[in-house]
């Protein structure tokens, strides 16, 4: 017996539905997969990764950290087990240039058919490229703002203006940033005007405890009318972890999801290391969800999330810029799919 057209339509619609986002998360982690190379550069840590997957190839942009300062690196691979063999392309050799550049975010801006790399350089900066696989093709930095916006100057205290993140809906592009002082900021400009015309920022989220809303914010679209916000916090044990919120609008009110130390998005208490892998880090720090849809909407699937993050030997210490951050992968184990 053949099902009715109505039943087929209903089944197809059900198949397309986005699975419900869980109220708690569980993960399994790899060991450290990528670290600095012994190539004379003197890099101490590889950190702040942004990652997209295109036809089975993973494209990664990250910060290179050392006592003398920060810059950016690009590499690509097809197998996480061999990620550390990937060739590093240091972006100070591209028109992005030397000097302070850090915390990159990459996405494809479909209206202009250009890749954008957003990063911090003391301001909120960006470069563009027609081909993500051509590291020499990035343009020289341009800034979103003429200087540090007044609202950030008035609220930053002893913090730093860091970790810029862009996401667009059908009408606007939104730029998020943090101040290491408990404030998450958001600006916007019309989709047709991007990257020009960013508005004065507003405070999108804040916490009296600056460590509870610290830095490394990232925002994704989940489904047709839902957004997921992740922000890095510093826990009561001194280790880094991620909290999460959801909203029906990028510029809407953010509702807590898994947003506590007891029930985090990703923290040492909900991450189990793979069989045979030593617990090499207690921090689940600055990273992002692996995206296979690479455009400016930053749409992700809730099926078995993968989060590419920075971790560090918990016994390490010393100067912040010289800490030995490495990159690892956590994979969701309680997915509804």
Automatic annotation (TrEMBL):
EC number: 3.2.1.55
Molecular function as annotated in GO: alpha-L-arabinofuranosidase activity
Subcellular location: Secreted
Keyword Secreted annotated: yes
One of the record's GO cellular component terms: extracellular region
UniProt-listed Pfam families: Glyco_hydro_62
This protein's UniProt keywords: Glycosidase, Hydrolase, Secreted, Signal
One GO BP annotation of this record: L-arabinose metabolic process
Catalytic reactions on record: Hydrolysis of terminal non-reducing alpha-L-arabinofuranoside residues in alpha-L-arabinosides
Xref: SUPFAM superfamilies: Arabinanase/levansucrase/invertase
Role according to the record: Alpha-L-arabinofuranosidase involved in the hydrolysis of xylan, a major structural heterogeneous polysaccharide found in plant biomass representing the second most abundant polysaccharide in the biosphere, after cellulose.
Family: Belongs to the glycosyl hydrolase 62 family.
Protein name per its UniProtKB record: Alpha-L-arabinofuranosidase
Organism the protein comes from: Canariomyces notabilis
